[in-house]
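A quick aside before the break. I want you to see a complete sequence-to-structure record at least once, exactly as it would be stored in a machine-readable document. Don't worry about memorizing anything.
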Amino acid sequence: MEKLNDKKTFRETISSLRIKLIDVYIIRKFLGTFFFCIVLILTIAVVFDFAEKIDNFMEKQAPLKAIIIDYYFNFIPYFAMLFAPLFVFIAVIFFTSKLAVNTEIIAILNSGMSFRRMMWPYFLSAFVIATFTFVLTNYVIPKSNRIRMDFESKYYRSSNRRIPVENIHRMAFKNTYVYMGTYNPLSMRGQNFTIEKFSDSGRLESKLSSASVVYDTTLHKWSAMNYYLRKITDSGEVISKGREIDTTLMIKPEDFSRDPGFVGTMTSGELDNYIDLLRLQGSDELKLFLIEKYRRFANPFAVFILTLIGVTLSSKKIRGGIGMNIGIGLGLSFSYILFLQFASQFSLKGNLGPMLAMWIPNIIYSIVGLVLYKLAPK
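That is the input. The structure line, written in tokens, reads:
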């Protein structure tokens, strides 16, 4: 008897989740308002961006076709996905508040539909947006970012935006470690260079020290200047000096100093492979790329959280009207973005793990969403 009741309950649950006319209405409102918000905000962003950069475009004689296709066709999806959760939140707050003001939500609940069931079309829409965001962020936008950044380097910014690096520590090979005091990406020259090679037991086998090291772009090799080489064997220690010696380093100059936007130019698979390389090298940049990896998974999930908060917050008709709900919604959404940025910086500069840093805002705002759901009118 209990099994029959369980099957009946399961069938009733499945039946209740079938798409109805009211679901289509809510989904159309949700997605329509979302894309309207994106178009509106992106139009404003493009106008302001063009006004800021038009002098550089004219000075460097950027072709109109390149400005439109190479830059803005790739700028628009990048900017849209950067703030997609915010656009979702604004869209939900806006059209749900309008439904509440017009007493449509009261009519829906009075028709026998539960508040939980009313959330179903909202989450279906959120699933579509989250999937769309995940695919674009991990596979499409990284490729478009390369084109956009190449355009910026040629027509907007200086030809070399790479940042000089200090106190570089890398593992070039197994048991082989590289140290460089400073590295200048313009001259491809480093100062206070050292290579240390150890045995599997941890005993020092050789150490190469030099005042400077420079990368030969023709031979694709690093050359150490004014070097001092120590080789330690079972029979004793051998010391040699010289003016110049080629190294066998497989590290490239760009591995020492990257464009600040380089992290956003790799697809999901490329990012994973590069993270493995940074782990092998013992690079200080590892946290930055781990943060980017976990951010790409956390952002789509944030769409569901902000949808839940938006619906529960704006489903009640209040005296302040739509404006009050939109104001509260914007405050919460910007606090979410601010919290995410603080967590990123704590991870980069402190001991907070990258995964935890990217998921802490989602965890906290999930709790906020569940509390608001409990307080929402049923």
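Two observations worth writing down. The mean pLDDT is 83. Residues 189 and 214 are 4 Å apart (CA to CA). We'll return to this after the break.
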